[in-house]
Amino acid sequence: MYQTIKVEKHGHVGWLINNRPEALNAMNNAMRDELAEAWLELDRDPAVRVIVHTGEGRAFQTGADLKEVATDGVGMQRYSDDMLALDLHFTSWHQHVAKPVITAVNGLCAGGGLHFVADADIVIASSDATFFDPHVSVGQVTAIEAIGLAKKLPFEAVMRMALVGAHERMTAQRAYELGMISQIVDPPAKLREAAQELAEKVARNSPAAMAATKKALWAALELGLTDACKVGAQHLVGMWGHPDQTEGPLAFVEKREPLWKD
């Protein structure tokens, strides 16, 4: 049913795969619409506990399709409307995707592709992955993606990427050193295998507890320390009485895998 992406499910792991390799997986309006639908499809599927996002070909994602923007005008207007409304449903924006999201960066990640790095819960990358933000090099403003990254990375590193534009690429090794990614996969051909293995580890945990944990930790990026702890306490107490709180300790004592509620 999708033309620009693929959706696959392997056990409790749902896969969302950018599938415009001939265009380096640049995001046109069709992909934007399909991503928004696919995120919700996977998030609402009770069989899926973790979502992995990656790309086909030699690029993960290269942002807005500049050919569409330059030739029909509709692409830029659509992107403008989304930004003004802060409608980020084409990403794993934490306010509407409750399940853990792993971004697996294969190859090139540029411009708007950094949305998916900034919004993911865990990011891994192949050893040949590179990152850069060309917005200022094509007369555009670097904003939402870099702001998201600035909550996770040293500010100077984000500002350098924003100002250097298309004229410098960050390697996977440098991204790892800065904390943009938490794992480098080598050889690159093993990236999906590594992502599936990591996702299966995450999927073994309580879905309800992980959803609450996501809310608590993402809120900490928007709040001060005391307010974040207060919100975290609310999420913690909110799990009390949930069947998983009884099942977890019982499974530990009985030395078996827990049977979580969806």
Strand order of the largest sheet: 1-2-3-5-7-10
- SSE-based structural type: alpha/beta
- Major beta sheet, specifics? 6 strands, mixed
Report mean pLDDT, rounded to a whole number.
Answer: 90
Give the count of structural domains: 2
Number of strands: 10
Give descriptors for this structure.
ClpP/crotonase-like_dom_sf, 6-stranded mixed β-sheet, 11 helices, 262 residues, Crotonase, alpha/beta, Enoyl-CoA_Hydratase/Isomerase, 10 strands, 2-enoyl-CoA Hydratase, Chain A, domain 1
Overview in brief:
This is Crotonase. The strands form two sheets. A six-stranded mixed beta sheet has the order 1-2-3-5-7-10, sandwiched between helices. It has a four-stranded mixed beta sheet with strand order 4-6-8-9.
Task: Walk me through the structure.
This protein has 262 residues and is an alpha/beta fold. It folds into 2 domains: 5-203, 2-enoyl-CoA Hydratase, Chain A, domain 1 (Alpha-Beta Complex); 207-254. Helices cover 45% and strands 16% of the residues. The chain has 11 helices and 10 strands. The strands form 2 sheets. A 6-stranded mixed β-sheet has the order 1-2-3-5-7-10, with helices on both faces. A 4-stranded mixed β-sheet has the order 4-6-8-9. β2 (13-18), α1 and β3 (50-55) form a beta-alpha-beta unit. α5 (144-150) packs antiparallel against α6. The radius of gyration is 19 Å and the shape is globular. The mean pLDDT is 90. Pfam families: ECH_1. This is Crotonase. InterPro entries: ClpP/crotonase-like_dom_sf, Enoyl-CoA_hydra/iso, Enoyl-CoA_hydra_C, Enoyl-CoA_Hydratase/Isomerase. Belongs to the enoyl-CoA hydratase/isomerase family. GO terms for molecular function: catalytic activity.
